[in-house]
Input
Amino acid sequence: MARLVLNDLKVSYDGKVNILEDYNLEIEDGKLVSILGPSGCGKTTTLKAVAGFLQSTGGEILIGDEDYSKVPVNKRNFGIVFQSYALFPNMTVFENVSYGLKLRKIPKDEIEKKVLDILETVELIALKDRKPENLSGGQRQRVALARALVISPKLLLLDEPLSNLDAKLRIEMRSQIKRMQQKFNITTILITHDQEECFSISDKVAIMNDGKIEQYDTPENIYSNPKSIFVADFVGFKNLLDVTRISPGVYRLSNGKNIEAEDVENAKKIAIRPQNIAVGQSSDSFIEGTIKVRTYLGEDYQYEVDTDLGEIVVSTSKAIALNTGDIIKLNFPKDGICVLAS
Amino acid sequence: MKKSKVLTIFVCLVFFYLLFPLFITVVASFNSKDILTYPIDGFSLKWYKSAFSSSYISGFAISFQVGVVATIISLCFGVPVAYGLAKYKSKFTRAIKNVFFSPVLIPGIVLSYSLFLGWVFIAKEFDTRLPKLLVLMLAHIIVLFPYTIRVIGGAFEKFDFTIEDAAESLGATKKDFILHILLPSITPAIISASVLSFITSFNDIPISIFLYGRGSTPLPIIMMQDVEKYGDPSVAAVSVVLLFMTIGITYLIEKTLGLNNYGR
Amino acid sequence: MNKEKLVIFLPSLCLIVVLVFIPLLMLAQKSLSVDGTISFANYLELFGDSTFKKALKNTFSISFFVVFATLLIGLPTAYFISRTQGRLKNVLLLLTLFPLLTNAVVRSISWMIILGYDGILSRLMSDLGLIDEPISLMYSKLAVIIGSTYIFLPLMIVSLIGVMDNISQEIEDASISLGASRLQTFFNVIIPNSMAGIIVGVVLVFTATLTAYTTPNILGGTRTVVLATLVQQYGTTLGRWELVSSISIFLFALTVVVITLINKSASLVGGRNEEK
Ligand SMILES: Nc1ncnc2c1ncn2[C@@H]1O[C@H](COP(=O)(O)OP(=O)(O)OP(=O)(O)O)[C@@H](O)[C@H]1O
Ligand SMILES: [Mg+2]
Output
C-alpha cells in the first residue's frame, strides 16, 4: 500500500528560515495529486523534501506506516521526472531507461525485457539507440517518464514536467502521464503552475501559498467552492467584493446594498466569476455600470464595468455584443456567489 | 546539497598541496644561514637586501621591458587577426587560423633554439649581430601571439558584425567605426589579454634559454641559474617579492574584471 | 581575396613565416646536413645515443605519471569546486589559479627544500620509521614527477571545471533518485559527461610535461634528464651542437604526433563532439 502522508513536515534551506512549516498532505493510494501555486510558494521545495534532496528538519514522510524522512534519496525508490528531464547525455535512450535497473543488479535479460516493455508503452522503441540530444522535447519527456517508471517506484514525483513543451504537445503529454499513472496505479505528485493542466488530470489539487496549503480538494470543489480569498483569486474569481455579515445569509456591500448568499460566519468578501454575473435590462437590477473596456476572448466578450462597487468584470457570449460606453444592469445570482471568511 | 566528508577532506589536502610549498618558500626566505631549509635556523632579512641587488634588479628590468614590448606588439598583430577570424568564416580563415596557432605546438626550447639559429645565420651572412634584447622580444611576441588571438577572439565571437553596417549607414568611416565602436567594445578583453600576456612573458623561461646575452638576462633565468649554482635563500626572497606582486595583480584583476574573464 | 583581408592577415602571416616557419626550416635543414651534404647521420647518431634513449624514456614515463596523477587529483577537486557556490567558489578558483601566475622557479624551489637531503620529506619519513639515514630525493625521477604534478595540476583542474560547471545538478539528482550512490553517480554520470574537459586537460598536461624545461632542470638536474633539458645540456653545456638540432626536431614532431593521436583517439571513442 502506498498511501503517502506528510505529517507536520518542516523544511529549511539554511537551517534558520523554514520554507515549509507544519505541512500536512495526505494522498490516497494510486491517486494523482497536483500542487499548484504562484512562483516561489514552495512547490519545488515540497517535492525536493519528499524526494529527499532536501533533508526535512521535522515531521514525517509516511508511506504506509514507514517513515521515509531519514531514508537516503538513493534508497527511497521514488520515480522523479525533472523539469529539465535530466536525461544522461552520455547514454542512449535504452541506457538511460535501464540505468536504474542496472543499479539494482537485476539480470540482464530481465532488464532488457522491462525496458523494451516500457519503451513500447511510451512509443519510443524505434528511438532506443538515440542519444538524448537527438530527441525532440516530447520524446525526451517520455524517456524521462519511462526512466522514472521502470524502477517500479513507490511514488512518482513530477516537477513542472510539461513547462518546456509547446501548447499542443502539453495536452498530449498530460494525457500520456495520466494514462501511465493509471496503468501502473502509482501514487503521484505533480507540480505545476498551469491551472488547466492540473485540473484536467488530478484527482485532487493542493493550492499552495507562501509555504502553506491553502486548500486541498477535488478540482471541481476548488473551482466552484474556493475556501479562501487567495484560492478564489488564484482560480479566476475576478470579482472580489468586501462585505459585512448583518444577519445569517445576508451581507452588506460597500455601496450600502444588501445581498443574499450562503451563510458563512465572519465573512469578509464575496467572490463571483465574470460569467456568473447576469447582464440584462430587467428593472429589478442590482447595480448599474458603464462599460469601460471591452476585450474579445474568442468564445465571449469580457467587459470592465465601472460601478459604485468599483470595477466589476463581466462576460457575455458572442451573441450579445455590447459597446464601450454602454450603460448596463448587473445581477448577482445567489448560487454564483462564493462567500469567503479568510 | 551537502558534500561528502571524504571528498571535503580530500580537497583540503589538495589545497594544502597547492599552497604549502609557497608557504615554505616564504618561511625559508627569512633564514639567517645561507641555506634553503625549513624550518629555519634563525630570522634575518638579509636575503631581501640581496634580492634587491643589482643583478636581480637588472633582470627584472629586462623581463619587464621584454614583457611590455612583446605584449603591446602581439596585441597590434593579434587584434586585427582576431577580428578577421571572427568576421570572415571560410575554409581559408580556418586554414590560416592553424598557421596562427602553430607556435603553441612548438616546445619553447625548440623555438628558442631555432631563433638562435636565425640569429647566427644573420650574423654570418649579413655580418650583423642583432641585439639579444631585440631577439628576446621577437621570441616572446611569437609565444604571446596565439594567446592574444584566443582571448581577443573570444570577445569578437560575441560581437555582432551587423553593427559595422549600421555604423556605416549612419555615415561612419572605417576609422570612426574602429575607434568609436569596435575597440571600446572589446576593451575588457584587451585588458585581460594584456595582463595574461605580460604575466606569461614575464614568467617564461624555455623561450629565452638560447637567446639571452650578457646584460640581457631575464629575471627567471637569473633565478634558475642561482638555484642551479648554490641556492641560498636570496632566490626565495626574490620569489616572495614576486609572489606578493602577483597577489597584487591578481587582486586588481579580481576587482576590475572578475575572475571569470581571466584564464578562460 | 579582398583588400581588407589582406591588410588584416598579411602582416601576421609574415610575422609567423619569418619568425617561426623559416627558423624551423633552418633547424630541419641543419639537422639533416653533415658537412654540407644531406644525411640522416645526426638522427642515426641520436637514436644510438644512450643518454638520448634514457631521456626519451624518462620524458614519457614522467609525462604518463603526471597526467595520471593530475587526473586522479584533479577530477574530485574540480568536481568539488564546480559544485561549490558563491564566494567560496571564487576563492577556490583563485587559489587554484594563483600558482599559475608565478614562474616555475618560484614554484619549484620549495620542492628542493621538501625533497632535498635531510629535507622535510626525509625527516617525515624517518619520524615514521621508514628510513634510518637522512635521504635526498632530489634529482630523481620521483622528484620531477612530484614537482611537475604540482605545477600542472591547476591546468587540469581549470580544464575540468569548465565542463563540470555545465553538468546540471538535476542530472546528478536523477542518478541518485534512480538508486545510485554518490560514488556511482560520479563514475556513471559526472566522468562520462566530462570527457571533453578530460581530453583538453590530458592534452594540455601531457604536452606541457613532454616539453617542460624548468622543473625537470631544477628537480631532475643532470641525473634525471628529459628531452627538453637534453637540448640545453647538449647545446650550451656539452657543445654537441650537431645533435641539438635533431633532438629539437624530434621533440617538436613528438608533440605534434601526441596531440594528434590523443585528439584522434578521443574522437574515435566518441567522447568529443567536433566543436572547434
Ligand atoms: N537553494 C535555496 N536556498 C535558499 N532558499 C531557497 C532555495 N531554493 C528556493 N529557496 C526559497 O524557497 C522558497 C520556495 O522556493 P521554490 O523553489 O520551492 O518555489 P516554487 O514554488 O517551486 O517556485 P517556481 O514556480 O518559481 O518554481 C522561495 O522563497 C525561494 O526563495
Ligand atoms: Mg519550482
